[in-house]
Structure formats: C-alpha cells, structure tokens
Amino acid sequence: RRDVLGALFTPFPPVRSGLRLAARLRAADGLRLARTLLLPVRRLGEERFGGEAARLLLAGSALHADLGPEAAGSGGFGWLMSMLGQTYGFPVPVGGAGALTAALVRRLERHGGVLRCGERVTEVVVRGGRAVGVRTAKGEAVPASRAVLADVSAPALYTRLVDARHLPGRLLEDLRRFQWDFATFKVDWALNGPVPWTARPATTAGTVHLAEGVDGLTRFAAQIAMGQVPDRPFLLFGQMSTADATRSPAGTEAAWAYTHVPHRIKGDAGDDGLTGRWDRGEQEAMADRMEHEVERWAPGFRSRITARRLLAPPTIESMDANLPGGAINGGTASAHQQLVFRPTPGTGRPETPVKGLYLASASAHPGGGVHGAPGANAARAAMRRRLRR
Ligand SMILES: Cc1cc2nc3c(=O)[nH]c(=O)nc-3n(C[C@H](O)[C@H](O)[C@H](O)COP(=O)(O)OP(=O)(O)OC[C@H]3O[C@@H](n4cnc5c(N)ncnc54)[C@H](O)[C@@H]3O)c2cc1C
Question: What is the pLDDT of residues 5-26, one digit of tens each?
C-alpha cells in the first residue's frame, strides 16, 4: 500500500517508490495491477465481487472524482478511495475544515513566513525567462528571490497570469483541450436532529453516498455527459456532527451534500426546466431535488431542516477562483488528463516552462483533494532546484 501511494502521490516518474513497487511485484503481477487500475469501476466490481454492496461502494467512491462507472481508470480511483477509507477512514479536522488551513498557517509563521489574504495576484513577473515575483490587483510588485509556487488552475496560470510570450506555443495549444471536471451544486443544512436514515450503518458514517445502484450512477454520469441536469442526483452527503461532535450543539446535525451538473446545460432531465441560469428559483428547485433524494433514504429528513444555504456553480466560483463552475478537482480526473498528461501531455511534474515557477494546485499531478500533494511536490521541486544551483 505504501509503495502504491508513494508512486501515485510523488512527481512523475515516481522513481524510488516505483522501483520498490516493481521489486515487490514480479513483472507479470505489475501488469495485472496496471490493468486493475485502468479498469472501469463497473467492470472491476463485477470481476471481484459477487454482491451489489461492494460494487456500489467502489463506484460511489470513483464518483468523488468525475469518473462514471464506465470510465477507464474509474476502477483504480474507486479502489484507491475505498482503500484509504478502509485503512484511515475519511478523517475530518476537529472544529471544521478551516482548522487544517490554520495548522498550515501556524507552521508557515513559525518558520518566519507571512500570509496575506484577500489580495489577488494578476501577473507572474518574468524576467530573462525566470519568475522573479508577482504583481497584485492593487499594482504592488512582490519579489520572489527563490521561486513562485502558483496555487492556481493551469488555465489561469498560463492564459491569465503568465504572458504568452514566455510560454511555448505548444503548451498554449494543448491548453485549449484542457478539460474541467464536472460543475458542482452544494447545499449546507442545519438540522434539529440526526438524519433519520432507514439504513442503520448510515447513522454513524461521516460520509454517505446516495445512489440507486451502479446503474443509477451510470445514468447520472450519462446525463451529465449529455449536458442534462440529472433528475436523480448522486449525492455525496456529509454529516459533520456525527463525524465531529464540536460542529453543532448536542442533538443537532450540521450536514451538507453536493452533486454534479454539467458546465454547459442543454436541458433538464427532471421536471423543473432548469437551464443553468441558476437564479434563485433554479437554485431552490435544485436544492429541493436533492432533499427529495435524501428523503428516499431518510424519510422525515426535510422536517428536521432549520436552515439551508445554497451554493450554485457560479456562487462556488465567486468564492474561490480555483473552482470554475464549482469544478472541485482542478480539471478532469479522466485517464487522458492524469499522470504525464496532467495538466497537459508531457508534464506530470510541477516544473513549468518558466524557470522558478511551479504549478502547485490541483491542476498538477496527482490532482484534486485535500491531500496537499501538488503543493508539497512543487515545494520539494523548488527546494531541490535551489540546492543544485
Ligand atoms: C464543495 C467541495 C467539497 C469538497 N470535498 C472534498 C473532500 O471531501 N475531500 C477532498 O479531499 N477534497 C474535497 N474537495 C476538493 C478539494 O477541496 C480541492 O480539490 C482542493 O482544495 C484544491 O486545492 P488547490 O490548492 O488547487 O485550490 P484551493 O484549495 O481552492 O486553493 C487555492 C487558493 O488560491 C486562491 N486564489 C486563486 N486564484 C488566486 C489569485 N489569482 N490570486 C490570489 N489568490 C488566488 C483561492 O482563493 C484559494 O484560496 C472539495 C471541494 C469542494 C469545492
């Protein structure tokens, strides 16, 4: 497990962990592992499990990324997420996700770092082919003596922040084919009691997947592919007070769910005529659709809602420029944009064509999630380069 994770989360090619893994597996087993990781998750479930439950667990886990049950590589992703869940659980920081950021900031400040919030970077300043700093929206130039680690999406970095004359035409051409992951619609709820799940095991789980079987997931992914707002949204549902009692007063529940919708909506597979305008009426209708879905598995859920907050795709984007349309993974997790294809063919590493500039966001290998690997990889690459000079 350690070697597989090492191989997946370090910059490409993963030399040390890759060699260890190769030594452990004889060549033939290595090929079988590669085949397993490339399988569509429906096929993986059918090959390995006789019952529906494990197949559904794997397929729901694959849909933490934009990988439907028939997508190549969804088997590997579903297996990875399930393996992490089985081994470590899906941990959450006590007190809220902000605690994770606060811990990182404390560490930065202990080492003399300074964090400035609310200042938009509008340009990476390049001189002599080298990144020498950034410019903010207020016009201030902030020098960088060592490196610039850009925690922005690949399209934002290469089409807005770095002037095109510093970049190879081939990269800009490749970027035209950059694919975002699905758009996202999220609802946060305050509940006056626990979610009344009919399935007992769901009452103690921090994260619950809501779907009508693997076929339901295929239908959901197909509707998004066809540009339709799914009529039966697949929900990733978090019951945060169950996972961490500090999140809300005793006896209540802080819950959320998100689902995916197309970026460009051509029609509504449901009855509400959603167009992607996402005005108040459309947002309320989508949230009602999601609540209706929860009601199927937890009758009485809606009667426990005391407040709700809606986060439509444009709202999510307005809160964080790295989430265009609520794309949460910095670009698709599909096989054609992973590893050496991430974010464009031939890279797979945090280095960019500009010396001293590193891509440190989820657009870089190994992609989205709160694992911090793209940032850690970028920092290590910058430090290694510094040591070599
Ligand atoms: C609703 C939702 C639920 C999720 N659930 C999970 C989950 O359960 N588990 C999990 O592992 N992952 C989850 N994710 C995914 C995960 O949060 C992201 O993949 C990850 O945070 C991306 O990291 P990042 O560093 O690329 O970007 P971000 O974490 O978005 O950080 C980028 C930061 O840079 C700032 N920024 C952007 N552009 C500029 C600029 N020009 N100038 C200055 N600042 C700028 C942004 O405001 C932001 O603060 C979720 C995401 C969302 C939206």
Answer: 777 777 766 766 767 777 776 7
41 and 138 belong to one structural domain: no
Q: Is the CB of 361 under 6 A from ligand 1?
A: yes
One domain, residues 196 and 158: no
Residue 171 shares a structural domain with residue 234: no
What are the backbone angles phi and psi of residue 197, rounded to the nearest 5°?
Answer: -60, 140
- Model pLDDT for residues 339-363, shown as the tens digit of each residue: 999 999 987 899 999 999 999 999 9
Give the structural domain span for 12.
2-88
Point out the ligand 1 atom lying closest to the alpha carbon of residue 160.
Answer: 41
pLDDT tens digit sequence for 46-95 = 999 999 999 999 999 999 999 999 999 999 999 999 999 999 989 999 99
Q: Is the CB of 148 under 6 A from ligand 1?
A: no
Question: What's the domain count of the chain?
Answer: 3
How far, in Å, CA of 169 to CA of 175, rounded? 10
What token pair was written down for 339? 């590893």
Whether 94 is in the pocket of ligand 1, judged by its Cβ within 6 Å, is no
Alpha-carbon distance 276 to 140, whole Å?
37
H/E stretch holding 134 = strand 130-136
* Residue of the CA atom closest to atom 50 of ligand 1: 328
27 pLDDT band, cuts 50/70/90, is low
79 and 197 share a domain? no
Residues 6+ apart with CB under 8 A from 159: 172, 175
Q: Specify if 189 maps to a domain.
A: yes
ipTM higher than 0.95?
yes
